[in-house]
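Q: Got a minute? One more chain.
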Amino acid sequence: MALYVKAAEILEKAEKKQGALKTLVYDSKFNNVKQLFALVFETHKFSAVLEEIISTTKLLKLTRLKLPQAKVLVYDLLLGHGLKCGGAWKAALLKNRARLQAALARIKVRQGVCNNQDLIPANGPQDQRPLPRYVRVNTLKTSVADTVDYLKREGFTYLGQARTVEDLTLKGTHFVQDMDIPEILIFSPKTDFHNHFLYKAGHLILQDKASCLPAHVLHPPPGSVVLDACAAPGNKTSHLAALMENRGRLLALDLDAKRLSTMSTLLLRAGVTCQTLRHQDFLKVDPQSAEYREVEYILLDPSCSGSGMVCLRDDSDTDPARLSSLAAFQLKCLKHALSFPRVNRLVYSTCSVHRQENEDVVSACLQENNHFRLVPVLPQWPEHGLPPLSQCLRASPSSTRTHGFFVAMLQRHSETDVALGGSLSPSLSTPLVSVPESEVSDTEDQPEPTSDSTDQTGPGPALKKRRRKRKRKKKNKTSGASGLTTQ
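A: Always. Here it is, folded:
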C-alpha cells in the first residue's frame, strides 16, 4: 500500500511542476527507491492511455480513488507485474478488472497495435535521445574549479569546456563545462548524484540547463532588490542568490504553502541567506507598498502547460481551452509585473513549447506597455523565438539538448527613448547578458543630422562642427578674394 501512496504523491507533484520525477523519487526517502522509480516512470509513460481507461470505465466514481492513485494501480494491474497491495484498493480494482481490460483492448484495436509498448506516443529520434545530466555548481558554497578538481580525484574525466551542442553527448565518467552558463557541469545521462556528498551538502544543484537560463539572463548584481514572483520549488531562487552573492534583498513568493516549506529546506541547504519567503498570491501584491516598491529585477515563471518537460508530456498539453486559460493568466501576471514602479529588468519564462503561452503573451503585453522593450540575449544560442520575436530564446531536446523552454527579457526605457523610436536607454544599471559589441550602436556610425534639423535642445556637436568649418571656408575665400583685388 505504501508503494502506491508514495507513487501517486510523486506523480501529482511532478504534474504540478514541483520537480523532476527522478529527483522527487530520490528525495522521498522511500525504502525501495528502485521499485518506486520503476512504477512512477512506467506509469507516467502510459499516462494518456491510463487516463482514457479510467475515464471510459468511470473508475474514479466507482471506487472513489483519486486520479494519481488510480493511475498507478491500473498500470500495475493491466500493464505491470500485478498488484502488490491488499485491502480495499486491491478489492476495488479486481472487482472492475474485466471492465478495465475491455477498455484497454478497445484502445489497442482502435490504434491497430498488439503490444502495450506500441501504445506509447512515438516521438522524433532526437527526442528519444536521453538528455545529459546537468549539474549547477552552487557558487555560494564552492567554485567550479574546486568542484572539477574534487570530481577528478573521484575518478571522473574532465574534457574541458564544451564548444558545441554535439560536445554534450557524453559516456561513462566523462564530463564537460557548459559553453553558455559557466557554473553548469554536464555528465552522461546515467550519472546519478542523488546520493553524492556534494549534492547532499548543497554544493551541487541538480537542475536542467534550460531551467538555469532565466536567472542567468536576468543576472541581478549584488546588492539589488529582486522579486522571484512564482518561486517554488526554489532552484531558480537559489541561482539568483548565487548571482547576487547573497547580497541585497531576494523576495520569493508562492501560493502553495507546502511548496514554500520544501523550498525553505532547499535554500537552507544551498546556503542562501538574502531571501525573504512569502506565502502570497503574486497578483495580489501591491507594487506601491513599502516592501515591493524598490524592486528592480523580477523573474516571472508562472504556471504553464509544462509541454516542454520531456518527462511530463501528455494530451492535455494541447487542449485549446486549457492553453487559452493559461495564456490569459500568464498575460495578467506579466502586466502586473511591469506595474512595479522601479522595475528595470524582467525575465519571463515558461517550460512550454506553445506560441500561445510564449511569444503571444509577450507581444500582447508589450502592446500595452510601450515603456518596455525586448532585449536580445545570448546571440550564440542555437534557437530563438518565433518571428517576429527573435530576441527571445527557445530551448528543445533537438536543438539545445535540454527540456523545452522559453525565455524573454524585457528592459525599461525612458520616455525620450520612446519618442525616438524605442531605442534602449544608454544608462543601464548593469550590462546586459552576453550582448556582443557588434549589436550595440556606436554613435560614430549614426548618420549626422542634416542642416535643417529642428531638435529643441539645439544643434548637436557634429552640426556645430560643420557650421564652424563652413564659416572658416567662407572667411578664407573672402580673404583670398580681397588679396587679389589689392594686387
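A: The chain has 18 helices and 13 strands.
Q: Perfect, thanks.
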